[in-house]
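For the sake of transparency, this paper describes our internal protein records without simplification. Such a record has a labelled line for the sequence and another for the backbone structure tokens. Nothing more is needed to write down the fold, since each code stands for a local backbone conformation. For reference, a complete record is included directly beneath this paragraph.
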Amino acid sequence: NQELPIRDKLYLYLALAELGDINTVEKYYKQTLDSYVKKSGEYLYFENNFDDIDNYELTSLMAILGVKLKDYENSDLLFKFIYNNPSNYTLSNLEQLIYIMNRDILSIDEVKDLFGEVTVTINDKKYDYKLKLFDTVSFSVEKDDIKNVKFSNIKGDIECVVEALGNKDDLAKNKSDEFKIGINYSSENSTMQKTNFKQSEIIKVTITPSVIDSIMHGSYEITYVLPSGFRFVKSDKNNHAWLIEEGQKLRYFISFHRQNFNLTPVMFYMQATQSGEYTVDYAVIKEDYSTKLNYIEKSKIKIE
């Protein structure tokens, strides 16, 4: 029916596509593309010579129709237009969701770039990593070994982020004796403290914070960096703390009020992955909204 508004026609084409009348839909879809769809840079958009609000909605409907017909060459450019140029007047969240649900996103070039491989060489030892989508791999090295880290066989779009800890002098400037932490290492199902573990063994790390009697309440951040040779497994489910995991660095946020709830230990589990003797860097507890902090000296852990 030539008297139907173009919006109603698109809804009709979508209904026919759902019912399986693909040949009819492809015919009118091609006519609509040729008559109304314009190209601008890397985008395609619907131009009805009526108003921008109407055109934005029609562009989203054309994108869905195109993906239903597997015309990805055009539908992806229509989708990019509504995704990268959101309207102040017309919501397209539902249309975008429908598009993504009907699109084989793993075949899109931009997504293919999220799969990658890299070889990391540390002191002549090579480690091969295969990454997919938003996977991350982290490792730590001694300060003097950073110059010996090399990357090769890089495939895909891979980002490397390097973090460095400050030295002891930086920590000592703001050291406070008002609070402190203690750390114990033990096997997963034991309370016996030790620092020698077998390869692949799961280790329970218990960090115990404490404050002087005159402090009635407070909030603190505890930072612990897993040594190289270990990987984080999980945080204990009974922790009264909020965890932010940043690769090998763990940041626990704790608080207490002496009259209502006391400080409790923070526990997590890590796995011994590679034999050797490793240095545990300074574990730090810092008072929120303050420069006051305290720390534990470096220590050694051995994997046999």
